[in-house]
Amino acid sequence: MSAKDVERLRRARERSPFLRWTAAVLAGTALLAWVGGTVDATDLFQSRRADNLVRFLSVDAMPPAVRDAAGAEKLGALWAWARDLVASRYLSAAAATLAVAIVAAILASFAGACLAPLTARSGPGASSRPRRAVSFLARLGCVLCRAVPEYMLAFLLGALLPSAAWACILALAIHNGGILGRLYGETLENADQRAARAWHLAGAGRLVATVGALFPAVLPRFLTYFFYRLETCVRESTVLGMLGFVSLGHWIVQARAAGHYDEMLLAFGMGAIIVLSADLASWIARRAVRDAS
Fold first, then answer.
1. Domain assignment present for 60
2. Which of 66, 95, 107, 162 is at 20 to 30 A from 153, Cα to Cα?
3. By three-state DSSP, how is residue 40 classified?
4. What CATH number has the domain bearing residue 91?
5. Are the C-beta atoms of 171 and 103 separated by less than 8 Å?
6. Max mean pLDDT range (70-74, 98-102, 209-213)
7. CB 250 within 8 A of CB 164
8. Rounded CA gap, 293 and 281, in Å?
9. This protein's superkingdom (predicted)?
10. 75-81 contacts at long range (C-beta below 8 A, 24 or more positions apart)
């Protein structure tokens, strides 16, 4: 292919005015925010900012035992400080964070599986008017569940429930249940419907035909979505701990209020380790599910 042919194909390519105008509007908005006074970029480069950063790294973020140690003893003092703090506080808090995330993800997956036959717009009897109305209401319910942020849900449920942990669990389950209900329903829509129709023609009800014929076929995809949302629940449960139950988020708030930035950074590190471990376990599980299917 010659250079002229390549140039001709480039000029003949499909163009989208909408995308170009959208990019122009976004660029203009970013430029306006940068020069219009909303973002003061010059303040970031003042000398006092550098002094504050040096003080934070050398004093605020440094445990007192490490600051007082000399030379090679600093590493041992840091290890002893981190070990004692993790054993006394953060290990149990990390376990509580994982427990909240796992329970919430399981409840969300169960709710999504129950909603999936209702949100799916295909399958036996999907063309009837009552079935379309039910599907519309179920999909609207999923939209409402995932439209409210988890933190707001947990805050509202915390005023109704005596346990802050269960408020966080239900908030995560409601939000992620709406997401999984939609994803599971779309998975059922895209599945091969012939087996479900055969079950329905043989006398099975619509729900029985959908669950019995389609669920085994789409189970690997369901599990993949479940592990994706489990990753999200692990991250969000760390943040929701700030509402009161003893998780890593709780200790982060306590350390921040007391000005113990060294302890706060250690809690951040523990949270990052938990999230990365959950991501790795989720990736292994998703890969095993894909290989098995």
1. no
2. 95
3. coil
4. 1.10.3720.10
5. no
6. 98-102
7. no
8. 18
9. Bacteria
10. 81/262
138-to-118, 121, 181, 215, 216 alpha-carbon distances in Å: 6, 11, 9, 19, 22
Region of residue 71 (left: phi > 0; alpha: psi -120 to 50; beta: else): left
List the one residue out of 282, 285, 222, 252 whose CA is nearest residue 90.
252
| Domain with 189 in it | 74-292
| Domain annotation covers residue 26 | no
Question: pLDDT for 267-289, tens place per residue?
Answer: 888 888 888 887 788 788 878 87
| 157 part of a folded domain | yes
Count the domains in the chain.
1
Residue type, position 207, single letter: L
Q: Report which residue type is found at 138.
A: A
pLDDT in tens, 203-226: 777 777 777 778 888 888 888 889
At 195, the amino acid letter reads A
Instruction: For tokens 């007082």, name the residue.
Output: 68
